[in-house]
Amino acid sequence: MSKKLQNATNLYLRGIRDGAVDEVLNNYMGKTYRQHSTGVSDGKEGFKAFFTDFFKRNPERVIQVVRAFEDGEYVFMHVYQNLNHGGAKWITTDIFHADEEGRIIEHWDVIDAFYQDDEIFGSFEIKDEELTESNKSVVRTYLTEVMQNHKLETFNQYVADEMKEHDLSISNYASWIKEHYVNYDFVFRVMGAGNYVVAYSKVAIDHKDYALFDIFRLDQGKIVEHWMNKEIMPAYAELTNSGKFQEKIMETNNYLQILRDVKDVAFATVDANGIPHVRIIDIMIVENEKIYFCTSRGKDFHQQLLHNNHVAITGMNKNYQMVRVSGQAQRLENNAYWIDRIFEENPSMNDVYPGKSRYILDAFVIEEGEGEFFDLSVSPIDRYSFSLNKKPITLKGFAISDVCIGCGNVCVTAHNNV
Length: 418
Fold this sequence. Notes:
By secondary structure, the chain is an alpha+beta fold. The chain folds into three domains: 3-119, Nuclear Transport Factor 2, Chain: A (Roll), CATH 3.10.450.50; 129-238, Nuclear Transport Factor 2, Chain: A (Roll); 252-398, Electron Transport, Fmn-binding Protein, Chain A (Pnp Oxidase, Chain A, Roll), CATH 2.30.110. The protein contains eleven helices and 18 strands. Strands 11, 12, 13, 14, 15, 16, 17 and 18 form an eight-stranded antiparallel beta sheet that branches. A five-stranded mixed beta sheet has the order 1-5-4-3-2. Strands 6-10-9-8-7 form a five-stranded mixed beta sheet. β8 (196-205) and β9 (208-219) form a beta hairpin. It is elongated, with a radius of gyration of 25 Å. It starts with a helix and ends with a helix.
């Protein structure tokens, strides 16, 4: 057993089952720990606080790791939990991210109720390790073609006729896909070991959003067995960490500060005829998750803002980090105060508008909106969503991740991100 797999196992068995939290924090976790589990706060402190209370509520804990494997820096686990002699029974599916020393630095999971043994228990043997990448490619293509592009006629190319289904809500997998609205919004990660492949995705089922794990067993290039574990996506306002999928998160002000540092960014508006216009505008102030800018009352830009105050902003710095924001721009009432404040923060404005000529300008603020951050300097590209002042985030229909196989079909779903 590798160091990372042993540390992930110890986190569960020594930490959660046996209650040895300090042992976990000091020996099995890295210097930092990013948490994505619903209801558990970020960091080592969040882990300890949650499970200190968890142990009080659940003094009797039976935990069994049923399936586990590693793929690169990541470990997957399929776990059964029996709390307080059957008072609560759970199935958890977990991904752990390990550092170079094999210590756990990040964790994602989905937790669902356990009802009967067939949902999780059974044999587990990793075979055909030389086919790991080939089997991952089969699953990636299946998820793209069938579950995202909805080419249901290709289902039998990837799934065996006698596939064994373990989810109690599904009597026939092929029929279930046809009879229900099932849409894989994005596939966050695909992992594999030989004949087993796991995908973690955001999925809409009958118009409810879930964080969902698919566990596939393949034989001769086709899916022959399937387990599923899903959890309702928590509301954004209820999050105690960075959410079910994001690998990293910065405070909104940090994202907006990138625009402030770039300063000259592209602003898009539409005119009274619905024609789009883009121009370069200076970001003057960023504070309290708000963006402040100004423009002259005689410009078309000013008129467009008054006619339709929806704006979109894009800027990229020299490190190939890009931020885009969409929201509504409001003209500020105490205009003289804000113009003076803008000139204090941006003294070069005095050269353009000397003396009282500055008051030909109107100050605007974007205080509610949503945005995205892209780091184009890494591969795969890092991409994270954020909001201004708790505006709900609209998750997009496609995410660039390690599931890309270069098939050319992403154009079907990627249009949601343009």
